[in-house]
Amino acid sequence: MPVKSYQGESVGVQAPKAEEIHVEHYMNKSVVSFKTTQDILEIMDALVKNCISGGPIVSDSNEVVGFISEGDCIRQLTESKYYNLPMEEMNIEHYMTKNVICVGPDESLLDIANKFLTTKKRNFPVVRDGKLIGLISQKNVLKAVLEWKGTHYRRH
Question: What is the pTM of this model?
Answer without folding.
Answer: 0.78
